[in-house]
Amino acid sequence: MSDSARTHYFVERPEVPSEPRIIQAEVRGHRLSFVTDRGVFSYGKVDAGSRLLAEQMELDDARSILDWGCAWGLIGVVAARTWPELHVVMVDINERACQLARQNLRRNRVEAEVIAGSATEVLGDRSFDAVVCNPPISAGRAAVIALFEQAAEILNPGGSFWMVAATKKGAKTLQRELEARFAQVEQVAVRGGFRVYRAADPIIREDDGA
Q1: List of residues 6+ apart from 20 with CB closer than 8 A
Q2: Does a structural domain hold residue 103?
């Protein structure tokens, strides 16, 4: 049984013992090195969905990006290497993940801000030109939909929300959920059983009774 199957990685302090493993990866032409660990998503390998997202995201017009649920830092590191002027913020509720993300920023000689905690609690009133996420499908549909809604709230005008999901784990259903919350939803790529979406122009709903 895989490590991710034995324990949830979206907890503050994983109970599984630490057993770091170093991996190498080439993404967008960058040769990168990462420390991974048990109790953190994608232990010992580059997740195929996250790789596709990292390869497909386009942030040329962005000044700031939030890597939501950064794990050991693939998305944030790739963003910082590809767009050096970009202000990158990485957040994860998993403290071990955040420690790894900081290590991996140093290993790959890039800079970003790493914050441990729930994004909705630790970001305050900050907003971003792009939010990039491989959502925690195993946390349940309600949690993923809540993430969509929260991402829409913290996007700057003209900003984009980028996400990846496995086709067999409901990507098309999640696309419909995105379309209910964003006026523009585009399927950017399909490969290896994963789909990457870009969403923009959040739909503003008035509260009942407003």
Answers
A1: 35, 36, 37
A2: yes
* Model pLDDT for residues 27-51, shown as the tens digit of each residue: 999 999 999 999 999 999 999 999 9
Between CA 55 and CA 194 the distance in angstroms is: 13
Residue 68, Cβ neighbours under 10 Å: how many?
26
Rounded distance between C-alpha atoms, residue 149 and residue 147, angstroms: 5
Q: At 147, which CATH number?
A: 3.40.50.150
Count of domains in the chain? 1
What pTM was computed for the model? 0.91
> Would residue 78 count as lying in a domain?
yes
Instruction: Round to whole Å and give the CA distance between 144 and 136.
Output: 7
Structural domain for 140, as ranges? 3-202
> At a CB cut-off of 8 Å and minimum separation 6, what does 5 contact?
none
Please indicate, yes or no, if residue 207 is contained in any of the structural domains: no
